[in-house]
Amino acid sequence: MRARYPEPNILLIDINMPRVNGLELMSWLRTQPDFEHLVVIALSGSAEQEEIDRAYQMGANSYLLKPASGAELERVIRAFWDYWVCSNYLPRLASASR
Question: What is the reported pTM?
Answer without folding.
Answer: 0.80
